[in-house]
Amino acid sequence: MQRTLTSPDYTLDEESIASISRALAHPVRVRILRLLAGETCCFTGELTGHISMAQSTISQHLKVLLDAGLIQGQIDPPKVKYCINRERWGLAEELFAGFFGSGFGPGCDCE
After folding, report:
1. DSSP per residue, 62-73
2. 110 part of a folded domain
3. Would you list the DSSP string of 80-106?
4. Which of 68, 96, 93, 62 lies closest to 80, judged by CA?
């Protein structure tokens, strides 16, 4: 197999889908998003009551979601408050609807 010296040119949509997918790749992060989606905002301290994990572990998962842009946070010392980033959430809905809604090519009979 021959390697190429150039990196592939990915579209912004492809990069965004991959980034969001990585953030959704752990069940704890999916649960955090579901909890936050049902609230206006949520302090991280409240999450330990819903998820049986150490606060430090939850914080690591929150950071992944924050880095992907799916949540946003405000620092209100001594606590940090997180909520869904509605703009990025809407973009994720559009991207995944387009990705999964594109169907298969004509004549595909893979059953």
Report:
1. HHHHHHTTSEEE
2. no
3. EEEEE-HHHHHHHHHHHHHHHHT---T
4. 62
Whether 20 and 66 have beta carbons less than 8 Å apart is answered as no
The CATH number of whichever domain residue 82 belongs to comes to 1.10.10.10
Q: Which residues does 4 contact at the CB level (< 8 Å), separation at least 6?
A: none
DSSP 8-state symbol, 38? T
- What range does the domain containing 28 cover? 12-97
Sequential pLDDT tens for the chain (111 residues): 667 677 789 999 999 999 999 999 999 999 999 998 888 767 666 788 888 998 889 889 988 999 999 999 876 666 778 889 999 999 999 999 999 887 666 666 666
